[in-house]
Amino acid sequence: QVQLVESGGGLVQAGGSLRLSCAASGSIFSVSAMGWYRQAPGKQRELVAAITTGSTNYADSVKGRFTISRDNAKNTVYLQMNSLKPEDTAVYYCHARVVRRMIIGEYDYWGQGTQVTVSS
After folding, report:
1. Separation of alpha carbons 21 and 58, rounded Å
2. 106-110 and 66-71 as β-strands: parallel, antiparallel, unpaired?
3. Phi (first) and psi of residue 60, to 5 degrees
4. Tens-level pLDDT at each residue, the chain (120 residues)
5. pLDDT value, residue 23
6. How many CB atoms lie within 10 A of CB 115?
């Protein structure tokens, strides 16, 4: 099995910064992509940022403020969030697309979610 463990959420004032981390562990052969999604109350889950071996992708609403990075050796993804706004308030979920040992195909896994609250 594969587990994703997130950390780094919390409460911050508008304009502040937070750094989220997510480590994937378990029966992993390789991780082709990792990313962060968020879901605010009453809204659908949306992509925040994603990273593959060769590229990154950001939602327009976070471009220039958030930076995604990855430590391949540790199967860990980070999200540095700067200049936070109240509208960034949401539960943030880590995602990984994994090739497992001894099993053909890629599979999607999700973390349990971490709350980010930005006060005005």
Report:
1. 17
2. unpaired
3. -55, -35
4. 899 999 999 999 999 999 999 999 999 999 999 999 999 999 999 999 999 987 999 999 999 999 999 999 999 999 999 999 999 999 999 999 999 888 888 999 999 999 999 999
5. 97
6. 11
Give yes or no for a contact between 32 and 106, defined as CB atoms under 8 angstroms apart.
yes
Q: Residue 73: what are its φ and ψ, rounded to 5°?
A: -65, -30
d(CA 57, CA 43): 21
Residues forming beta bridges with residue 28, ordered by sequence position: 100
Instruction: For residues 49 and 62, give the distance between their C-alpha atoms in angstroms, rounded to a whole number.
Output: 8
Residues 6+ apart with CB under 8 A from 70: 34, 51, 76, 77, 78
Least Cα distance to 6 among 120, 116, 112 occurs for 112
Q: What distance lies between CA 75 and its chain's CA centroid?
A: 12
Pairwise CA distance, residues 35 & 53, whole Å: 12
Residue with tokens 């999700």: 110
The token duo for 41 is: 């109350």
Count CB-CB contacts under 10 A for residue 36: 27
